[in-house]
Here is the input.
Amino acid sequence: MRPSPHLLARGFFGRSLDEFKRVSNIALKQEGLRTPTKPYVLLDFSDPASLESCKTMSDADIGGFSKASLEHFSATATAPPHACFRGNVSIELPTNQPQVQRSGYAAWRSLDRGYTLFGKSLWDIDPYTYLALRFKSDGRKYFVNVQTDSIVYTDLHQHRLYAQRPGEWETVLIKWNDFVRTNHGVVVEPQTEMLRQKVRTVGLGLIDRIPGSFELRLSKLWATNGLTDADMAESRSMEPTNARKQDADKQAAASENVL
Here is the structure.
């Protein structure tokens, strides 16, 4: 028996080597016996090539008129290297496709990660409590979408992405247990626990159906058990100077009250 050409591709062996290193690290450091303290990066948009592992979607795929793109931006003094998800939402229906009754959405997600010598390449986020995202939002209604290798291929686990400071860079944590199982936008009952050992894809979608432009910038997504000092320092470095000053003033006032 000879392996098929796609299995001999450099990407296949590269993924296999990465998976071997990851599993070996877990064994050597005995991470399976205790709670991991290091973050598990799922998507990092530091490199422009990272966009090759993602795809955009919109109602244009079914004849609608919404537009969506995912573009890379280099680091600046006030922003990390990141991907910018932007475009325009339209709720106009195609006149020549009566079967299309609803439009007005745009989304992106990571591509399936392919196969390795160990089987299908999936993320095992079971040892972690949170999904962390570093992003800059325009304040519109975005959802985080997680797809697992479950029996129902079209199931999605979703959670609203709440921006605390629209227009500014921020980092949020979402509990994996707080995601809701849906199918084609409808909550599925009975709810079942996310198959956290076999996460296939992650992404974000805009579903408020409000016509007009949108823009969401994203630096990184990772699984974690809490923000590390490095995470907090990086997040703070992206805050505007006046925001840092306000926080410092609040801390000083709190200290005076204690004293």
